[in-house]
Structures are given as C-alpha cells and as structure tokens.
Design a protein that fits this description.
The structure is a homodimer of 210-residue chains. Chain A is 39% helix and 26% strand. Chain A has 210 residues and is an alpha+beta fold. The longest helix of chain A has 28 residues. The structure holds a DNA duplex (30 and 30 nucleotides).
DNA sequence: AATAATTTGTTGCTTTTGCAACAGAAAAAA
DNA sequence: TTTTTTCTGTTGCAAAAGCAACAAATTATT
C-alpha cells in the first residue's frame, strides 16, 4: 500500500518519543500479544507477518485478520468481549513495536514532535484499517465458497497487478480466513480448475477469466 | 454509544466551518448517496436510520452496514471497487450532513476552531467505526446460521443490557445483514424456539439461556 | 540424512443451507 | 376503510457445505 512511507515517519516519531515504547522480536508460532480488556495497546509490525486468531467454543479456528509489514493491531482496534480468546501469532520471525494508546491523548508537557506526527498520521492509519475490514466483510458476505475464493483472488490480483500470484496464506489458513471448511474449499478449488476458471500448482494461482 | 456527545461537538464544528457542508433531508426508501470512486465523501446521519446496501451479480442483496443516529459513512470508509454498486438507503425520514473529506487535510488559512475539533475527534470517530466492523466480522465468521443468530442476539442483549428486546431490523433485513437465506433463517429461529433457547413473538426476542 | 510434523489433495456420507413457492398477517397507501 | 404492498412463517426438494478419515507430498526438526 502507498501508506508505507507515512508509517515509517510514524514509527520513527514513536521510537523517539517521550513515551515508553517497547520493541521485541518473535519467532515462528510465538504469541505476540493477546487481547486484554481495557488495556488499549497499539502494536506495529515492523517486520514479518502474523495472524489475529480466535478459537470459538467448538474449537473452530478463525483467522480474523492477517498482518504484514507496517500493519497496526492491538485492542485499540477491537473491543474485547470476554467470551473470545483473541491473540496474534507470528507466522515467522517478527519485529513488533508496542505502545499504550491512551497516552496519545494525554499531551506531554514538552509538546514534542511525536504528538504532532501522531495526531497527523493516526486518522490515516486507522482509515487504512477500515478499508481492510470492509474488504474482509465484502468477502465474508459472499454466499458460496466459490464466490469467496473468486472474490479473494480478485483482491490479490488487483493488489499485485497480475493474474498470476502465490497465495500469501497456506491453503489451510486461507480456509480459516474465508471461514469455510478446508476440504470443502479444496473441492471447490478443484471445480474452479476443472471449469477452466483458474490454473493452480501448489499455492500458485493463475486467473484465466476476464 | 458514549460518543454521542463528542459527535455533537463535531457536527457543530462542521456546520460552522469555513468549508462547504450540505445538509439534506430524505424520506423512506430514498437513496441518500451512492459510493463513487475517489470522491471521498464523509456523511453524518443526524437523524433516522439507513442501510449501506450492495446487490451482487446474482441479485443477492446484502446489507453491508446499518446506520443509526450519529453514525458516519461515505467513501472515506470504503474503497470502491467497480464491480459493486454500493448505496445508502433511508429506512425512514433521515437528516444527513455531507462533507468532502479531502478538505479536512488542507488547513484553512484562518486556522478555525473547526480544524481543531476535527483533528481531535476524527480518530475516535473512526475507531468507533472499526469496532463496529470488527463485531460484524465476528458475526460473519460464525459457521452456522444458528451461531450467527445467537451471536447477534448476544450483541443486542449486551448493548441494551436486557435479555428481552425488539430487533432493530425486520427479519428480512436481518437475513440480509447476516448474509443468509431468509427462509433458512426462519427455520433456524423456529428450531431455537423449539429447543427452548429463545422466546419469539413477531420480532421481539427473549433469551432464555445463561 | 532420517524422522517427525504439517499441509495438501481426495472422497463417501451426513447435515445444513438455499431455492421456490405459497398462504396468512401486518403495514402502508389510496 | 379498502386495497395494495411488504413481511412473516412454512414446507419439500435440490444443492452446497461440513465432517471424518486417510494417503501422498511437502516442510521442519533432530
């Protein structure tokens, strides 16, 4: 996305701020943070990729959100309801910046550059988030697995500006992201292939339509 | 929600701003606005209720979002992709404020009170939006109609702080909101009733569990 | 390099959901 | 008030999705 430059500014300002910011490194499958009521943490993924995951009472795993470089997450962006364990897990080596959001409102006495950058960039940062959430909702409201898959492929395709791409997810994770049964999704992928809509080798997809 | 006071401030500042703000009234079923690429309009619903609606290629109607007093909407919160007609329709008499977002960034020369209030309140406004979107996603990721219904009821119940409430939707609209077939939803509602989980008279629901 | 763990691909069977159609109730319009 | 329109409630049947189980392939770990 074209906000990466702004984010760099933001991160720099945050790191040089008068407030306490923690930076930490994680390796694959480690839990980066879990969402706790009222804490209002704001995290920035400086490097790597991670998933926001929930397990429901039936043991179904859902990938609520997928984060890559410079994405933001934390309770700031999510009201935590007690009956859902939410946590962010690293998909590989990750570098993460932690910050408590509430401090942003309390103006520091020295009126540092940090607050200036923050108030300027935060809305844009969050709007970017909103856009992602809306795209997600658009996918989830599709009525069939096929429509979800095609919708997702179109999204990736228009993001990378190519009809041929590797999925940023494993197929198992993609099913959890689209909130469908994995084997049913595999079946549908095969049908899409048989019907000549896509080509598929491993998790490399080529769109043949339009 | 507890942001209504802040929104009032916001609206006041907006109306007295140095920029062009349009206010307009709509009656039931009128189209308040449709989402147009790159316009970046920001709207505030001053009174009434309205739905953000999409019709897909198969003619399925989906209620993407439901707005009530002081909710914000517009392209600012949505990247418009060409293959989806998105519009907001009034569910009854509505009063709406229109504003073009891009003007917010361009600081006016006179450094008016408006910009101050705006930069202060906007992040909070949008965060509120994010929270709603996340709740929506949580509902949509539920794997069955029953889970979606129960999830939705729990939400309403905890919002109104009562186990007995009238649905803010017609049942037809609720199905579109949960993105499921209406008759299948009706069937599931009946099963929930038969299983003793809920009581239902018209669109008044009472939760019997917990 | 060998072993263990995870992911992919497939399938038969069951359950859930969607579709279509219709009658009655309720709400809106004339 | 009467008529028209929309919404609710129901059902049989068809289609889609979920579940479970397993082998093959791929990827990590030792």
């Amino acid at each position: 996305m074209n906000i990466s430059f702004d984010i760099k500014q933001f991160v720099e300002a945050l790191e040089n701020s008068c407030h306490k910011v923690r930076k930490k490194t994680f390796s694959k499958n480690e839990v980066i943070t879990n969402y706790i009521e009222k804490r209002n943490q704001l995290c920035i993924l400086l490097d790597g990729s991670a998933d926001l995951v929930r397990y429901d009472l039936n043991g179904n795993r859902t990938i609520i959100d997928h984060f890559s470089k410079y994405d933001v997450f934390g309770e700031v962006f999510y009201i935590v309801s007690t009956n859902n364990e939410l946590f962010v897990e690293a998909k590989g080596k990750c570098e993460v910046l932690f910050y408590i959001y509430d401090d942003i409102k309390k103006k520091c006495k020295t009126n540092c550059k940090f607050h200036e950058t923050l108030t300027e960039l935060l809305p844009e940062l969050i709007l970017n988030k909103v856009t992602n959430l809306n795209m997600r909702i658009e996918l989830l409201t599709k009525r069939s697995i096929r429509d979800k898959l095609v919708g997702y492929f179109n999204l990736i395709s228009s993001m990378y500006l190519t009809k041929s791409f590797s999925l940023p997810f494993s197929l198992t994770d993609l099913a959890d992201y689209l909130s469908v049964d994995r084997s049913a999704m595999m079946r549908e992928l095969k049908l899409l292939k048989d019907d000549g809509f896509i080509e598929k080798t491993g998790n490399k997809i080529t769109l043949l339509y339009k």
